[in-house]
Design goal:
Blueprint: H1 6-16, H2 21-28, H3 32-39, H4 47-56, H5 61-66, H6 78-94
Length: 95
Amino acid sequence: MENTDVIDRINLLVELEKISRDQLSQKTGINYTRWTNALQRKAKLRHEEIEALGKAWPEFRLWIAYGEEIPEAGQISPMTKKSLESLGKQGKATK
């Protein structure tokens, strides 16, 4: 996931968490139209949006803002979350 910017990461978050823009708006308290414009690069992203995402998904805060992970500090990406969930399901299936 190299060379992504914050908009790419937010769009990926929406895709991997399987949420609609309406759900994103409800979860963050940011207007639906504002999200649509920002995520389509028709408006600049503001720090309020990044802060709202960090509150809605605290485990993804560092990844959203900087594209970095520190798993030992609980800071992961949605991809890591999916991988961990997949490993958990595989482990349960083999028991």
